[in-house]
Amino acid sequence: MADPYQNNIYHQGGGDGYGTYGEGGGHDGYGYQADYPPQEEDAASDATEGHDEEDQMYEGEYQGIPHPDDVKAAQRAARTKSQTAGSAASDLAELSEQYEDIMEDCGHGRFQWTLFMVLGLALMADGVECFVVAFVLPSAEKDLCLSNAEKGMLGLVVFLSMMVGAFLWGGLADKVGRRHCLIVALAINCVFAFLSSFAQGYGFFLFFRLLSGIGIGGTVPIVYSYFSEFLQMDKRGEHLSWLCMFWMIGGIYASFTAWGIIPRYGWGFSMGTEFQFHSWRVFVLVAALPAIASLVGLTFMPESPRFLLENAKHDEAWMILKQVHDTNWRAKGQPEKVFTVTHIKAPKTAEDEFIEIQAATGTAVQRWAVRSLTLSKLVLRNVASLLSAELRFATLFMAIIWFCMAFSYYGLSVWFPDMIKHLQYEEYASKVKVFHRERVQNFHFNFSLENQIHKEGEYIRDKFIKIEMKSVKFEDSLFEDCHFEDIKSTDTVFENCTIRSTLFYNTDLWEEKFIDCKMENTTFEHNKHGCHLDTVEENDVLIYLVSFLGSLAVLPGNIISALFMEKIGRVKIIGGSMLISAGCTFFLFLSFSQSAIIALQCLFCGVSVAAWNGIEVVTVELYPASKRATAFGVLNALCKLAAVLGSSIFASFVGITKAIPILLSFCALVCGGLVALKLPDTREKILQ
User: Would 280 disulfide with which of 139, 215, 427, 635, CB 3.0-4.6 Å?
Assistant: First the structure.
């Protein structure tokens, strides 16, 4: 009996919900057999002349090893047999079988690797976005005069905007298209990241970073859904895991560029006193380069053919599949290999037709409003379908796993650097110099004051000119006939002091730095307006080093998880990695030094990345094509919500206790790991 897949021709099975692509004249389908001349049985190209395929011997035959093509043929035959034997096999499952066979014939080669690089840059841009605000904040808080509340809001808005973006673009990608939505999302990110670098006020900077985050938030749900639909089953887990590595590369890129640019204060310019463009703004521009590069690359990439088939766009899907096939085999030195697919089964959908019917009347604004409203309803209906009977438990389990992993990972990611800062502060505070009841008369202070406390002192006819005051506190002191001029201060306060006949000229000592002080005949002239950048200590290299090492530590875990994703399985990798990460958290009780905290951070990041890789692969494989990006977007939005909660809760216990953050992360990781072990194994599952 002849193999039904011998010539890669896919015929229509039973089912009223499907049209046939590639039928002859008089039918609804289209045939593309005329794109190339028919080959005679004895025809041979220049590349194959002088060779008889039947005479060629596969070198493994001597050892009884089956040829890889024979293995694939056997797998196809088994799938066909199970499909015909199972009366409950749906038409959608038949499309999935056909699509998998087509992707096997297209092979894995130049096209997938090109798309891998383009989508990797988009994922890299997402990784960079998570670091940008953290790196620029020490400089931006001075440049933009940020209060503690404003700094907190700026850090919070990054995750909130990415949460909105994940939900929005994930839902739209299943209805509008993966490529189209990813291009628009990256364009929004690039435009508003560029504008944020020039924003001179806090309000505009916050608004532009909000919109930039909404744009970049769509990359993760779309990238994984998009790339998975160009991969065959036996390549999917490994290559999706390799793709995860670009997030790590984004962290390394952000750390290196921040370290190389932000401390260089000469890398900027100013236009009077109203417009300042310091080095941290240059870094914001450089951080947008991966998104720009990905955006350019996407213009040369096609839409996902699986998405097009789901939306009954047969012609475009066939042309793209032929492009993938020809690109790969041409690169492998077999340009004569012909794409012989003529029939592709695809579902008929009425959703787009409904939109067009509604949009056929009224003004342009009315048509846009009707189409947008209809599209919103379709997206929300798709979101609601994630809780349908067949997907309810998968969605619940994945929501628990995503939330637990993100809560612990992002919570500890904030806790590690905050603990390092706390240890630095304790060490700095232990070296404070205390001066008690000192009396200084007619003295010219021409040197900086740092980390000092002056109690009950008396300063008579003294001059403080062109100096810096850092972490200086005057308590219950008297200043009489003193002169302060050209002063720069950081964390400097006067508390319960009496200040008589004293002049403050061109200083940044404002009213809020005088707490319960008594002023007598005191004058403030030409106070410095705005804020200033501290040029030495504010941008400590340690913040970049910690982020760099944390990102680099991901590399071993990424490589191991990619190599063993198909061998061990996604479920065991997720559950095992989360449980091992939970065990690693107990070592945090030993974090008594900065070096110990950095080492534990690297250990935790290196182990937890394997769980992240498995989670993202399983999320792609559990959901059908019509809901894949939507589900990924909803779960990724939940991830960002967990990140906000985790970072806020963990940060509040810094300097108070280690026990609560450690126990919270341990419980969350154990809970997520145990739930992950209940997931189905999707290694041998064809994408629905």
Answer: 139
